[in-house]
Write a structure and sequence with these properties.
seven-stranded mixed sheet, globular, four-stranded antiparallel sheet, mainly beta
Amino acid sequence: QVQLVESGGGLVQAGGSLRLSCVVSGQTSVNWGTAWFRQFPGKQREFVAGINWTGSKTLYGDSAKGRFTISRDNVKKAAYLDMNDLRPEDTAVYYCATTILVVVEDPLGYGTWGQGTQVTVSS
């Protein structure tokens, strides 16, 4: 059974940085795309960033461009989201998800999800 475990969330002041990690277990291959989404209370999940399985292509949502960087390490079967210049409006639960298809912004394109990690940015 494939499992995704996110970590790295927490409380940070505005302007600070965090690195989220997503480790994949229970899957022997690495040819899956990975994306990060976030969810605000009462809202649908919002695409943050995605990366294909080779790491050669990345995709960013408007809120992430210029501040966040997605990367992956196929040896460790992990993906990362480096978040800089965090703002109070970035406060949300962040989820990682994987797909065997093309990385897209639609959460319906992903079959496996982690449990989420809370990111809170204070002003």
